[in-house]
Design goal:
mainly alpha
């Protein structure tokens, strides 16, 4: 039984179990965002000021996420020794 479990859970991030865990984590994060947005939009009246303030905050968060993804891409390429010619 333990030999079977060792073949399934190879433990490496490049294996299928690492990919499955990453996919499940992404799905869980998307579900959490969907639940939070549903609760936000179903609770009460929003003034124009509230909508603008929350829109600005969401734009800042998306900008930070885009920067993090951009920076992680360059860090991964540098780690792997890949130099992109411009």
């Amino acid at each position: 039984m333990s030999a079977f479990l060792m073949t399934i859970a190879d433990g490496g991030p490049d294996g299928w179990s690492g990919m499955a865990i990453s996919g499940l984590a992404g799905a869980a994060a998307a579900l959490a965002v969907a639940v939070l947005l549903t609760v936000y939009f179903r609770t009460g009246y929003r003034s124009t000021r509230d909508i603008l303030r929350h829109g600005l905050a969401a734009a800042l968060v998306l900008g930070l996420l885009a920067f993090a993804a951009y920076d992680m891409r360059h860090a991964a390429l540098a780690y792997l020794g890949i130099v992109l010619a411009l």
